[in-house]
Amino acid sequence: MRLSKIYTKTGDQGGTMLASGDHISKTASRIEAYGTVDELNACVGMLRDSMRTDVTLETLWLFSSLGRVQNELFDLGGELATPTRILEKSKQKLLSQTDIQVLEQEIDLCNETLPPLANFVLPGGHLCNSTAHLARTVCRRAEREVIRLRAEETDVRVETQIYLNRLSDWLFVASRALSHELNVEEVLWDQRKDKV
User: Fold this and answer.
1) How many structural domains compose the chain?
2) What Rg, from alpha-carbon coordinates, does the chain have?
3) What pairing do the DSSP bridges indicate for beta strands 187-188 and 23-25?
4) Mean pLDDT of the chain
5) What is the CATH number of the domain that holds 155?
6) 124 located within any domain
């Protein structure tokens, strides 16, 4: 695919075109869903770039896995930009149960190396940790948008929703793994009732 013209002016009136050629409002649930997935992909890219500040982080499994996740998110955005009735599984990469299981396996393997949680953790302690939490919260919003879309268009595949649910857990574990690797203390939620 070659993009020779970046602006088309077709969206100047608040509409856009799906992969099917259908014109819909930029405020439609489908656009909100894949737009938020696009935002999530940008956050994941920012997390990956923040890891470049420490040479040892680039050698972590997490660094290459983030690259894989970015490609999966682009595939997911492409699927959401395509009405289900015209999805072509032979030509279009669709996320599968296998992709979800890979996230689960990585969560389990990583979690084994981390100390058990005694309290809720807050984003912070290091830029990498905070960026992972930012990606996690955008992932949760993307998941909510896909749930909303699936309520309106019941033929949207459930794998899209499950993948985002699992990815948000994966990003939480990634935030903890980064703090652990950087030898940065996790910021714990202070539950004292007497705090000002």
Assistant:
1) 1
2) 19
3) unpaired
4) 88
5) 1.20.1200.10
6) yes
